[in-house]
From TrEMBL:
Superkingdom per UniProt: Bacteria
InterPro entries according to UniProt: Phage_gp6-like_head-tail (IPR021146), Phage_HK97_gp6-like (IPR006450)
Protein's recorded name: Phage gp6-like head-tail connector protein
Pfam families documented for this protein: Phage_connect_1 (PF05135)
Length: 98
């Protein structure tokens, strides 16, 4: 189940739907990235949803991978938010309550 567009608009403080197609695209890409990073299907776990919101906001506000003002390709915190959920090479996955 994808992250609702209403939650994404609220996170971005948008009061219009003019960019919904773009936001939906960013959301799909962010959910795929989270699933690939964690090694698990996207599940709308609260940490996964937070990471998607962060990635969508970053993509929406920075249309290029990097800029001279912000030389980081991912917003700070995405790896930190998802690291407890990431399936490790050993197969160990930290237990996190939703």
């Amino acid at each position: 189940m994808p992250v609702p567009i209403t939650l994404i608009r609220a996170h971005l403080n948008l009061d219009h739907d003019h960019d919904d197609e773009l936001l939906t695209h960013y959301t799909d890409a962010a959910e795929a990235w989270v699933a690939a990073y964690t090694g698990q299907p996207f599940s709308r776990h609260s940490l996964e949803t937070q990471a998607v919101l962060m990635l969508v906001a970053h993509s929406y506000e920075n249309r290029e991978a990097v800029s001279f003002a912000n030389p980081f390709s991912l917003p700070f915190g995405v790896h930190d938010v998802l690291s407890p959920l990431k399936a490790r090479i050993t197969g160990h996955q930290a237990e996190v309550t939703a």
